[in-house]
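Cross-check.
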Amino acid sequence: MKKIPEKYIIYGLLFIGAVVLTFTFFNLSQTVEDIAESILHEKKGQTLVELDNFFNPVISDLEIAIEQAKRGEFDQMNLEEFNKHFLPILKESRPVSSIMMATEQGKEFMILDLDSILINRETLPTGSGTDLRSTKYKWEIRERKLKLIEKLEEGSSYNP
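Predicted model, tokenized:
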């Protein structure tokens, strides 16, 4: 039997080592991609659950309001009733800072919560064509009661 020189054995071992390292590198690379993809899917799922938990109470409150509007409960609503109905939603819902409602008759109500200050806008048709009367109110909130700070009336013409 012929003796194989040591240098060929070393070259062979180096070649086998290089093949093993290349194979290991590609397997690890694929494993890293799989783990990254798995983590991203997990975080995406968690984010969707957190967003649902954050917005679902508001969505359900607004769906109830939509049903009430369909039944005509808001047809004769005035600003005081609007505030009574929607201020609790604003105060209890972190995602919502303002609500606006409009009727087919041209009435619009808006409420904006700025912590201790509440801003309202009431827009009503004047009965003469496309003219509207808009009134803005600024309220101070004290012990769950509203105290009027400022009232500003404007007239405008509707221009779609």
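The mean pLDDT is 84. The longest strand covers residues 145-157. Passed to J.P. for a second look.
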